[in-house]
Write a structure and sequence with these properties.
Helix content: 25-40%
Largest sheet: 3 strands, antiparallel
Number of helices: 2
Number of strands: 6
Shape: elongated
Radius of gyration: 17 Å
Number of domains: 1
Order of helices and strands: EEHEEEEH
Length: 105
C-alpha cells in the first residue's frame, strides 16, 4: 500500500499541500521488473522522501515537509496511482505461476 499524507495550506496566496507522511515499499523489496521500468515509485530505507519516475523516466523526489502546488500534487498522485497499478499487474503475473499441485496417474 502506498500513502501520502498531506495538509492543505496557502503560501503567498497559492493553494497547495504540505506532505506530512509517506508510506511506501522500499525499493529493495520490489520486483526487479518494477524497479527497472516506468512509472515507478518507492522509498529507500528510512528516508522521509519518495522517489517517483513518470512514464518518460523523469525522476522526482519529494520529502516530508515539501510544499506542492495543487497542480504538482495532483501530478504526483497520478504517477503514484499509475505506478501502483503497474506493480499490481506485475505481482498478479508473478503469482499466477506460484503454488503447488498433485497429478494422479
Amino acid at each position: 500500500m502506498m500513502q501520502i499524507g498531506y495538509k492543505k495550506e496557502k503560501r503567498n496566496g497559492i493553494k497547495g499541500r504540505i506532505i506530512t507522511k509517506i508510506k511506501m515499499l522500499d525499493k529493495k523489496v520490489l520486483p526487479k521488473e518494477y524497479t527497472t521500468g516506468y512509472p515507478r515509485s518507492y522509498k529507500r530505507g528510512n528516508e522521509n522522501r519518495v522517489y517517483v519516475r513518470n512514464s518518460s523516466g523523469d525522476l522526482f523526489k519529494y520529502y516530508v515537509g515539501d510544499f506542492l502546488t495543487e497542480k504538482r500534487f495532483r501530478k504526483l498522485i497520478k504517477i503514484i496511482k499509475q505506478s501502483g497499478r503497474r506493480l499490481r499487474v506485475i505481482n498478479l503475473k508473478a503469482n499466477e505461476w506460484e503454488g503447488s499441485g498433485t497429478i494422479k496417474i
